[in-house]
Every structure is written in structure tokens, then in C-alpha cells.
Description:
By secondary structure, this protein is mainly α. The protein is built from 30 helices and no strands.
Amino acid sequence: MKNLRPFYIPAAIFILGLGLRIAFYRQFAATPFYGHPLLDELYYDKMGRAVASGTIIQDMAFFMGPLYPYLLGVLYALFGHSADIFRIVQMGMGLGSCGLIYIIGRRAFLPKTGLLAAFIYAAYKPVLFHEQTLLMETSFSFFFLLFWWLLLEKRKSGGAYWIAIGAALGTAALFRGNVLFFFPFLAAQIAWTGWAKKRESFQKIALLAAGSLLGIMPATIHNFLAERDFVPITSNDGLNFYIGNNEKASGFFEPPPYAMVNMGVDPRGARFAEEMLGRAPLKSSEISRFWRRRALEWMKRYPFDFLKLLGRKIYFLWGGAELDQIYSTKGMATLMPAMRLPLFNFFILGPFALLGLFLAARNPDEEKILLALGAISYMLSLVPFFITDRYRIPVIPLMCLFGAYAALHLWDAAKGRRWRECALLAAAMAALFFLLNNRRLLERRQEQEVFHNSLGLIYQEEGRQDDAIKEFKTALSFSPMPQIFSNLGNSYFMKQDFTTALDYYKKAAAMDPQNPTHQYRIGKSCYLLNRWDEALPHFEDFLKREPRQIPEAWKEIAWLYNQAGRRDKAREAMKIYLTLRPNDADAREVLKTHLGGE
């Protein structure tokens, strides 16, 4: 029995982690969000399906991290398009990450530090939740930990291992390229510790660089083959940089105005870039460069506003709130009892981790320095963009290690009756909790309306229009956003209550005149209410601004022109429609028979 004791605690952590993951899985599966991907999830799911069907080279350079959708594609090819299989794999990766955290903690700190860190990660609420989503964070964290394990275990080995370490870092970058920001920190640390053996140190750095390039090379080659463009990994950095740095940036994710970027149709912001530069089509690297330069121009013009925004983002990054982008933590807690459990989150972990980093700096060794540089460099790499809870998840394993280190340091001080040290540590912890958890600064006002709006869209897709209307009206009670008015109009439209739909579309258009889609919906409602004279100018306004978004609008305006006796305009509109829908035989017959066209 004595020999079995070392396995009790790891086994208990594994059982706890497995039990919590099963609970989150079962409860998420019972929510309306199960089987309904949102926003970034739609991108990954669509590309995963394409890969599963044999499309290895996509239509253009990668916009988001490619490794995750390709892993999805492999799963879809092997097991079919299942809403369960990727969740099972991600839960396995989450448990595997607990094991890697223990191994790394045992190596860099003490076995008890690794165990406590693994326990924190096993019961870390945002990690448990995101394992149920179609997002890259779980896989990214696992591959990032593999890099750390390889670095700590093999850094004293020969050249081939340094190529492997670099390749592991490059592979992790295929999820999100910001991990490469650690490379200069690692190179500097290698040069500093190996200064007496300069040649050997520079050889390691060169091999590390070669391995990193090898890791990202599949994406670079793909992007060249897809678009004949040099995009090392992804092309979304420029737009994300602009979203994080402009006159209306808040530090959170705030999409650009519709007139600049239609996130549903043109998420790269290509059209606006082409209009501003006066040439088309632009390659992905050119689009990204346009948005990057636009952000830099704002930063140069308003340096004090930029510095203020930078400070806000640093605070958000270390603050205790889980800053949602796609899913609302508060909203999901109303649907999942497990989300209401008193589990770990950054509110608890953040102050401990920050204190742990400080304590590690007081007692440095090579492993702790590497891990601290990794944690700090990752956090710094997020600041130029915008802050969300899920972007923070890949560094949470390192934060768990430093948080556990601080907690055990405090425990050892109390156990050793070092009361002065205990008092100083307790005072530091209290100050950090107070400073990092200012709820007024961290409150995101749009969280609840986004949750209810997303739920309404799911009900709308399922044909449950009354439930959708209820959710949209709840969302409006938090904030009268134009998109919610439009979605509410869509549900009434689907119920064929065109009069009520028209009222909501007009409210949306009044609040958001830059969005031409509202004009189309107003025109369509008037069209179906036989208010044709009223419908026509709205169709014209929409098609002037969005000539290709909804091809059917050309067929509808052709009918309106014909009803108004403007046969030439009707014929012209129908011809444009047929250039967009050349296989519509009925429309071609109408053009020939009724409009005098060919």
C-alpha cells in the first residue's frame, strides 16, 4: 500500500478532471448551442468539412490558424461530421494537458507544485467550457505544452533536438502565430546563459530558428499555392491589429462599422481596402497590410489615446473578469448548472500567478526563467490586438504553475512559522486581488444582449420563431442594438407578419444607416405587402451599395421596374441577375419572352 501512495493524488486529480469534463459535456449537449457553431466556429467547421472532402489547398491564404480546422478535417474524414467526436478528443487533450503540467511542474519546481497546478487546471472553469466549443484553444494549449515539455527535457541535448524544439514551437504557431513572440526571448536567454560558449549558443539559436521555420512551412507553402502570395501563417493579423487600435477601440473585441467590414460576407475587409486603394483584387497580404497601416496611422496621430488604450488592455489581460467574445459566461451559467460551480477562474488564479512570477524572479533558475519568459511574452503578444478570455487560455497552464508556486510558498511560510513573510505575502495577495478585480472597469456591457441574440438566432434557424422573438426582445431590454432589431424583424418576416417585420427593419436602418442590408429587407417587406412604389427606392439603394451580395435582389427589382413600366431598366436588371445566376432557366425565359432580351 505504501508504494501506491504516490499515485493516489494524481489518480484523484484525473478522476476529478474526467468527472467535471463529463458533466460539462452532458450539460452543454443539452443547450441549444449544441450543434450550432457560432462565428469563428463556423469558419473552422466549414474548412474542416472541406478538408474531409479532400480539399487540401483552399481558395485563398489562411485567414485564421490552419492546424485546428485540418485536425477537424481528419476527425470528420474518419468519424463523419459529428458534434461529439471533436469534444471527446478535446476532453482527452484537456486531461493530457493536466499530465503535461504535472511533468513540467515537477521538472521546473517540485512534484507538489506540479500536482497543485494540474489540480487547478483540471478544475479551471474556462478551460472546461472551451473544451466543449468548436474553437482552437484546447488543441493550442496541448500543443504549446508539448513544446514546453520538449524544451525543458531536451534543451541540454544535441543539435537535432533543437530543431525538434523549434519545430514544436512552429507547429504551435499554426494555431495562433503570436507564440512566435517567445522566440527572441528564448534566443536571448540561450545567448545569455551560454555566453562563455558563444559558438555553441549561436548554433542552438540557428537550429531553433530552422526548426521554427520548418514548423510553419506547411502554411507558408499552402498560402503561396492558394494565392501566389507570401503569407507566413495567416492574414488576419492586420485586421485584428486595426480592431484593437482605432478611434473607437475599447480593448475588447468590437467589430468595425459595417461600411468598412461586413464580418458575415467579407471578414477580411477586402472590399473596403480595395475601395480605399483604388485597385482590385488585392492579395491577402496587401489587405492585411492596409489595415495594419491604418492602425499605425491612428497610433501616430493620437499617441496619448493609444497609450491610454494600451494601459486598458494590459489591465484587462490581468484582470479577473472572463472577457467573452463568442459565448457569454453569465448567459451559459443560466443553461449549465456546472458553470455555477465554485471552480477556478482567473479571478482567483491571476493574483496568485502574478505573485508567483515575482517570487520566481527572486529565486531564479533556468527552468523558472524560461517559463516566466514564456508566460510574459505570450501575455505581451496579446496586447497589440484585443483581449478576450479565450485568447488567454493557452497561457493558463503556465499561470497554474506560477499560481501553485505562490500558494505553496505561502503555505510553507505559514507551516514554518515565518509570520513576517506570511504577513507580507498575504498583504501582497490582498493588494493584487483588489487591483486586478475592479468589476466596474472589467464589466462588459454587451455580454447579455450578445448571449440572448445568439440564442435567438439558433431558435430562428430551428424554426422556433416565437422563442426567437422572446430572446431578441430580452436582448433589446439590455441594449437596443440595430442588428437585434433586424433579427427580430427577420423572425416576424418568417412568420409572414410583414407589417411588424417592416417596423423593426426601419428601426434598424434608422440606427445603422451604413448597413445596406436593412434597405433590402425594408424593400422586400414592402414588395410582399404590395407597396411596390415604396419598395423600389430601397432596392435601388441596396443594389447601388451591394451589387453582388444578394443576386435575387436583381430579379426582384426587375419585376418592380416592369410593374412601373420601366421595361429597359427591368431588362438591364434581369441581365445582371443572370450574370450572377447563369443557370436560372426560368429567369432567362422571362428575359426572352417578357422583357425582350436575349
